[in-house]
Amino acid sequence: MAIWYCRVCGLDYDVSPWGPQEAAPDYSTCACCGVVFGYDDQTAASATAYRNSWLEAGGKWFYPRMQPSDWQLQPQLAQIPEPYR
Ligand SMILES: [Zn+2]
Questions:
Q1: CA 73 to CA 11: how far, in whole Å?
Q2: For the chain, which residues make up each domain, given as ranges?
Q3: Distance 80 CA to ligand 1 centre (A)
Q4: SS (H, E, C) 3-47
Q5: Which of 4, 35, 44, 45 could be disulfide-bonded to 8 (CB atoms 3.0-4.6 Å)?
Q6: Burial of 7 (0-12, 13-18, 19+ CB in 10 A)
């Protein structure tokens, strides 16, 4: 069950890369947008800036082989946590 959504692209995660208190990022990379958790997603402004660059570049998966065959961008973007939209 998804418990966390990427602040940049809305990809769902079973384990939060920001830790249980949302305060301890593990600096791993989002498979979809390629953001490094703890760097470009620290604030709403930086998450939005990263998202805009990513979308302008085509919104492609950072790790293309992990992209589900039925993946759709818009429904995933709708999952971005409210404070980071
Ligand atoms: Zn992402």
A1: 9
A2: 1-85
A3: 9
A4: CEECCCCCCEECCCCCCCCCCCCCCCECCCCCCECCCCCCCHHHH
A5: 35
A6: buried
pLDDT of residue 46: 98
Instruction: Give 46-81 pLDDT, tens digit per residue.
Output: 999 999 999 999 999 999 999 999 999 999 999 999
Question: Are 13 and 2 within 8 A, CB to CB?
Answer: yes
Residue 2 is predicted with a pLDDT of 76
- Does residue 1 surpass a pLDDT of 80? no
62 CA to centre of ligand 1 in angstroms: 9
- Cα–Cα dist 44/85, whole Å: 7
Report yes or no: 13 and 4 within 8 Å, Cβ to Cβ: yes
Q: What is the predicted pLDDT for the residue at 58?
A: 98
